[in-house]
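Here's what a typical entry looks like (Tryptophan-rich sensory protein):
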Amino acid sequence: MDTTGNVSGKKINWLHLLLFVAAVVLMGSIAGVANAGNITTWYAELEKPSFNPPNSLFGPVWTVLYALMGLGLYLIWNAPKSEKRKRALQVFVVQFVLNFCWSFIFFYFHLIGWAAVEIVLLLGMIIWMIVSFKAVSKWAAYLQFPYLLWVSFATLLNISIWWLNS
């Protein structure tokens, strides 16, 4: 993105950008809202590692991460049509489905071990997404690094919770 508001030579469509960000934030929030009841009940009773962050941190962090995903997705969608763009969009969808499913596996079904397996797959898909995005837009890829870091931390947290509660 340059200082004139152009991305890859294309003018930014601010309405489309807002819609992409809002759609990803909304879709990502559905899993959180659907599982909120288990956070104050079942999850509260689990033994957690000392580095477990307060529950109040998760909502704001995920909102920012979903907004960055939406911005990255917009940059990819706005890029010229190509096989690389098509692949990046496909990888995004797969990682997003894994992201969505993890909350249900962990919080709704209480399958901590399976959630650990799933989040490792998600982590691999995030890396693949970043590589796929970079082939189309380096900025779209760079925007995903906070997501990669957070899910890396969440993977450690998930595995630790599984270990402490098995």
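Helices lie at 14-34, 36-40, 42-45, 55-77, 83-108, 112-134, 138-142, 145-165.

More examples are in the samples folder.
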